[in-house]
TrEMBL record:
Name of protein: Adenylate kinase
InterPro entries, per database record: Cytidylate_Kinase-2, P-loop_NTPase
An example Gene Ontology molecular-function term: kinase activity
Keyword Transferase (UniProt): yes
Keywords: Kinase, Transferase
Species the sequence originates in: Streptantibioticus silvisoli
Length: 172
């Protein structure tokens, strides 16, 4: 476990798990959304592919994302382990709602100095809407990749409940 992807739906706890594993395993953690959103008004990194290529050329790392489409194959090609937080909407939705309410109320700065806003909740791109509407599609995409002959050699750990993840983490 040297080059790790932590995948799952928005709100599953990918970043939290990646940070914890980073500390325990001594892997450098890279937060994909921080690499993707690099400036005000949710500006997108126009050098994302180069940045991700450089980071994943290193021998040891952990990234908390399935990957944006332009870097998805690159990430999966270079990983040796995939940790899949395959949680139900019943688990994910309260998490993403609590997080977004907290961020909106406290005006917490997130990626690129951006902030979640009350009007942002009306957008289909808002994390709560995204988590709800993309749950099935994201799950199918990860399932497809896990069975793709190119990625079958990856050590894929699939957890269907946070208790399973916690138990595994305790065993490390």
């Amino acid at each position: 476990m040297e080059r790790v992807l932590v995948v799952g739906m928005t709100g599953a706890g990918k970043t939290t798990l990646a940070r914890t594993l980073s500390g325990r395993l001594g892997l450098r953690h890279h937060e994909m959304d921080a690499l993707y959103f690099t400036g005000p008004n949710w500006a997108v990194n126009d050098k994302l592919t180069e940045d991700v290529s450089r980071l994943t050329a290193e021998p040891r790392w952990i990234i908390d994302s399935l990957g944006y489409p332009e870097v998805r194959d690159l990430l999966w090609d270079r990983a040796d382990t995939v940790i899949w937080l395959d949680y139900s909407k019943r688990v994910i939705m309260p998490r993403v709602l609590r997080r977004s309410v907290r961020r909106t109320v406290t005006r917490e700065a997130v990626f690129g100095g951006n902030r979640e806003t009350w009007t942002g909740w009306l957008s289909r791109e808002h994390p709560a809407w995204w988590a709800w509407s993309q749950h099935g599609a994201r799950r199918r995409e990860i399932e497809r990749r896990a069975h793709d002959p190119r990625f079958v050699p990856l050590d894929t750990l699939r957890f269907s409940h946070p208790d399973d993840t916690t138990a595994w983490l305790s065993s490390l």
